[in-house]
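Researcher: Sequence recovery benchmark, item below. Answer with residues only.
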């Protein structure tokens, strides 16, 4: 299958790919969504599965009615589907949460309840979801970056040696949501295990884009804990996953206390359920889990490795095109040699990141993300913002905080959309002052916003 045919087929898998949006010049254009790192549109198969399941929807583990039994079976069978998707170990269990963020908070709570003083080794490139929960419970140290914003594997090893067996967990992103760099997590796992630590991988930006195996290679390279979110892999409805060894999850009290998390309980004692039920208090989000499973089946049916290669080809074209535009600075190695997922961040000389994002949207219907991407320390380091500057921004709410513009691709994006994006960036870069002035008055165009709201309602 050639690229054009494959691209057209992939686009047909997604709901709303040809939705039109208003632009500043008047009229409408087909929306170009280059903000997939934040969230992705749903697969058609996901929506079909939700509609098919809806008549059978009932409570999970809370009744003997036929629909309740069917729903409970579907919910429990989903754990095995999720585990197989990421090659989890036989002793691993999948806990369903609402997001990667909740999964990490859950794991932090588990480790904090396990007793003893622990040190967490994170990195300078983490999303705040893989930073703040560790800060809440533990002392945290950070492995540093090289000059291009890549994680220094040598510094990871140096930190582990420096702390002499005191590191309980290495927490690292599988792929950065700022630069797209893919970290060698199995090599990091080998280092962590060598020094008596376990490893957690934030898979939110990695799992949707390429095959991932927790139990790859030798036992020393296996991943102890993994989290990812359905909404970044074409399945809305708020499901997330934490996968880890059942024994590691057995000793702690749950993060959320309530019905569904217990066995026999009285006013005199609490008997917690075994994992994963212990960590799923309340009524489970079975709709979200059904959506997640449907998305996994769609990704598996369409060869994730081929999808990764297709997305890699597109982002390589983006990087090459941006490199040739005067005034553009890329926040990564300017070659395409480093393995990455399909995203890249950049700035344009002469125009604020927010105004540039606004111009792309209003001029051509291209949605990108701008700002700090919930990875504040990473972006601050990439931009070389000093402590004095950070203090100033912290104490002056009216100051415009520096940031980046991020383009992140999904499997349904096309080469034609990439070409449109590059043409639009070139046009803005030719006269950034004009576009900065045009969109300075307001970060939102009231005409377009009101028109969208009117059409939607």
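Model:
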């Amino acid at each position: 299958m050639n690229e054009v045919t494959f691209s057209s087929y992939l686009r047909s898998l997604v709901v709303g790919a040809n939705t039109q949006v208003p632009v500043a010049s008047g009229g409408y254009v087909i929306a170009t969504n280059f903000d997939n790192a934040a969230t992705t549109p749903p697969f058609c198969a996901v929506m079909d599965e939700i509609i098919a399941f809806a008549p059978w929807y009932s409570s999970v583990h809370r009744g003997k009615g036929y629909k309740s039994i069917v729903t409970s079976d579907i919910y429990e069978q989903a754990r095995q589907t999720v585990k197989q998707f990421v090659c989890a170990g036989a002793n691993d269990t999948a806990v369903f949460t609402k997001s990667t963020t909740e999964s990490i908070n859950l794991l932090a709570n588990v480790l904090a309840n396990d007793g003893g003083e622990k040190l967490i080794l994170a990195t300078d490139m983490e999303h705040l979801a893989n930073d703040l929960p560790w800060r809440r419970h533990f002392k945290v140290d950070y492995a540093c970056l090289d000059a291009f914003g890549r994680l220094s594997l040598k510094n990871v090893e140096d930190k582990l040696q420096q702390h002499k067996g005191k590191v309980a967990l290495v927490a690292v992103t599988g792929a950065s949501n700022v630069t797209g760099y893919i970290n060698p997590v199995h090599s990091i796992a080998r280092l962590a295990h060598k020094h008596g630590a376990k490893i957690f991988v934030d898979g939110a930006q990695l799992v949707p884009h390429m095959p991932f195996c927790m139990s790859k290679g030798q036992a020393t390279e296996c991943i102890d804990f993994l989290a990812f979110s359905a909404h970044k892999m074409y399945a809305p409805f708020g499901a997330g996953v934490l996968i880890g060894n059942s024994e590691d999850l057995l000793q702690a009290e749950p993060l959320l206390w309530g019905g569904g998390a217990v066995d026999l309980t009285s006013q005199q004692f609490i008997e917690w359920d075994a994992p994963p039920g212990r960590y799923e208090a309340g009524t489970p989000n079975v709709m979200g889990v059904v959506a997640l499973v449907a998305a996994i089946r769609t990704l598996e049916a369409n060869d994730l490795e081929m999808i990764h290669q297709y997305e890699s080809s597109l982002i390589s074209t983006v990087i090459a095109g941006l490199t040739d535009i005067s005034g553009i600075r890329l926040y990564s190695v300017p070659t395409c040699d480093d393995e990455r997922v399909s995203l890249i961040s950049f700035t344009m000389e002469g125009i604020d990141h927010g105004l540039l994002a606004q111009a792309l949207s209003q001029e051509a219907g291209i949605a990108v993300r701008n700002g700090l991407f919930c990875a504040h320390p990473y972006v601050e380091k990439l931009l070389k913002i000093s402590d004095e500057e950070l203090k100033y921004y912290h104490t002056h709410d009216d100051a415009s905080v520096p940031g980046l513009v991020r383009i992140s691709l999904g499997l349904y994006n096309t080469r034609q959309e990439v070409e449109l994006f590059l043409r639009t960036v070139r046009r803005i870069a030719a006269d950034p002052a004009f576009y900065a002035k045009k969109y300075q008055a307001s970060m939102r165009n009231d005409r377009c916003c009101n028109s969208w709201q009117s059409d939607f309602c």
